Input
Amino acid sequence: MADAALFGNTAEAARDELAEVAAAVTSDDPVSRGTGNESGDVDVVETFRQQEDKDQDAMTDLQTTPTTAAAAAPAPVTTPPTAYPETTSARASAPAAATTPAGRAQTEGEALPAPRRTRVMTVANQKGGVGKTTTTVNVAAALAKAGLRVLVLDLDPQGNASTALGIPHHAEVPSVYDVLVDGAPMRDVVQSCPDVPNLLCAPATIDLAGAEIELVSLVAREMRLGRALTAYLRDQEDRDERIDYVLIDCPPSLGLLTINAFVAAEEVFIPIQCEYYALEGLSQLLKNIELIKAHLNPSLHVSTILLTMYDGRTRLSAQVADEVRRHFGQQVIRSTVPRSVRISEAPSHGQTVMTYDPTSSGALSYAAAAVEIARQGAGEGGIR
Output
């Protein structure tokens, strides 16, 4: 199968939109992860066209002769998940391995620098299944284990972030719903994570499923979360218990819940699955962020992008990673998160992978990502 079959000719318009919108939503980023002018210098459409000719034979071999490809690759059962065999092209462009010294040091309890002001980050992606909740809870746990005070706001009615943090979120539990709809103080709904000190969570209950309709008739419906969060953060500072990071887990849609999250934050943290469909949805997400920035929250910008479900055995993962890095070079975290069974198992035990298996490839990957976020953002902060 040629690359054209993978990428499709109809995606050309989406790539044009991606290149056009990328610069607008990242221009105000206070956290610099590069020294060059990486963003926007490469035409993504032309890059894909060149790749079609360059890799056509190789991709045909991969798709039509899987037995030969499998025989040529080393047996994965004897290597850790982060050391999967890679093609030459993938190895040349692959990001840093998950088991970096920074990741190992962080899981061993190394302290990380605190930001000058509270950083409020909305973790969002309109495509489902890209690792939003997993990224939210594991980055939050990694930052908290390093001595920072972290608050997770669960805005997804499914309540998966609450489950992963071991927070009760049945129907009778005070939740973010009470804050948004009834105007309850956020301090009345925030709970402590039982497994990780310094990690707090405002849980989501099934009531949030109806919040979209109930918010429609309320005054300042887009700003209710932001106002409640600001009051809570000021209260914590008055108590000398300042929150260093707030991570908001959003549902995979652009409704009033997600809009509230965008208005409440200054930074957008986007997890991107290393598959082509994730790139197609990114353009629309960036356009929506630009609309919020223009009309509701001028300080909103994309500050952080994390590549998830990276599989070094496939050329497609490397190609998607390359395209994302070419467009958002300064915003893309160097560490990537590989596919990991341990990451998937952890929520069934009411834990993050950081406590379920701290030495696994998934835990080390998220630890390294947390180190990079904290170190690059030291001295920076949100509008709080």
Observations:
- Strands lie at 119-123, 150-154, 191-192, 199-202, 245-249, 267-273, 301-308.
- The chain has 17 helices and seven strands.
- The radius of gyration is 21 Å.
- The CA atoms of residues 172 and 205 lie 8 Å apart.
